[in-house]
Specification:
Helix content is about 35%, strand content about 15%. It has ten helices and eight strands. It has helices at about 20-30, 75-85, 115-125, 140-150, 170-180, 185-205, 220-235, 240-245, 275-280, 305-320; strands at about 35-40, 50-55, 60-65, 90-95, 130-140, 160-165, 260, 285-290.
């Protein structure tokens, strides 16, 4: 498939600065209180994660939303995407990854960029009443989405009709290196603050299993992945984690319509997260790389929703037989 044209996204001049476009939605976008109904999902390994549902009458379509690193279903981008999808007759299931719903999970496993087993469990056990399933992930959740539909470690449901990822760090090693740059220091430290708090909580729960003697040495997300992501989840080290979980190595195997939206000015993404070569020759994988947008930004003031939200909605609609003007699958 050709690269999708993204030239129509032309934000106002201040939002052509990637950091403004990244931070504005996080700091200032107004969120509506949505009528989510929370369900706790128990897992085969005696743990849990929480899912927030928003049902849509008799509709047989369900969109599953996956948040980013240290986000939750309260994140502004989940709020916006849930609204636009619900207004267009989709049921919503917004998944909180383990430890992200306000209560610490029970096992060593928390979540990471390649943690797909809870998504698989949810799809197998909680979606039988729906006929058409769609998955949309943001940042880390975008990599989870792409890895799940492509790595062929599980047999995915034929009900999954399309998937989308926004600001996807599909090259995890490259993204971790980019986050070490001085201009990403604010973001990296925000992530580390809450991640290290969770490690301390885990240590309190299971002091014999979790060593915090080196926690003062954690200065970057690479350091965190080297010691704790790898240690909690059975990887040799950060390099092994990045190698095993980067979805870019599996994208060629995608077999359902898939959209990835990665802004060219996204300060979190490395060159490896713009897989043009795959998109140009692939039957199902579509790539959109607008010049602006920041990281999970894509701010827009002329419409009720953000540009990326309209793009994902149009893409999902196109798989239902409605070909919107903004998406051309030819």
């Amino acid at each position: 498939m050709p690269i999708l044209d993204a030239s129509e996204y032309k934000p106002n001049l201040p939002f052509r600065n990637a950091h403004i476009n990244t931070l504005y939605p996080y700091l200032f976008r107004k969120k509506k209180t949505l009528p989510f109904v929370r369900e706790r999902i128990m897992t085969p390994d005696q743990d849990f994660f929480d899912v927030d549902w928003w049902f849509q009458g008799s509709s047989e379509k369900l969109v599953i939303l996956l948040h980013g690193l240290e986000g939750s279903t309260d994140s502004q981008y989940i709020n916006g995407m849930a609204q636009i999808m619900h207004q267009n007759q989709y049921n919503i299931a917004a998944i909180n990854f383990r430890s992200c719903s306000g209560e610490m999970n029970l096992q060593m496993d928390m979540y990471h960029s390649g943690f797909t087993k809870d998504l698989h469990h949810f799809l197998n056990t909680k979606t039988t009443q729906f006929e058409r399933l769609y998955i949309c992930g943001f940042s880390l959740g975008g990599n989870v989405t792409m890895k799940y539909i492509s790595d062929q470690k599980q047999d995915i449901s034929p009900k999954i009709k399309a998937a989308a990822g926004i600001s996807v760090p599909c090259d995890l090693k490259g993204g971790s290196i980019k986050l070490k740059k001085w201009y990403n220091h604010l973001y990296e430290q925000r992530f580390l603050t809450t991640l290290l708090q969770k490690v301390m909580m885990k240590h309190t729960m299971m002091p014999d299993k979790i060593d915090i003697s080196n926690i003062h040495k954690i200065k970057t997300l690479w350091d965190f992945d080297e010691i704790y992501t790898a240690g909690f989840h059975g990887f040799v080290d950060a390099e092994d984690y990045y190698l095993q979980c980067s979805s870019v190595t599996h994208l060629q195997k995608i077999k359902i319509p898939t959209l990835m939206i990665n802004a060219l000015d996204d300060s979190f993404l490395s060159e490896g997260s713009y897989p043009y070569d795959i998109a140009e020759s692939h039957q199902y994988f579509h790539l959109s790389t607008p010049s602006h947008g920041g990281h999970v930004g894509f701010t827009s003031f002329k419409d009720s929703f953000y540009w990326s939200e309209f793009m994902v909605l149009d893409f999902f609609k196109s798989t239902d037989g409605t070909m919107p003007k903004s998406i051309n699958l030819q």
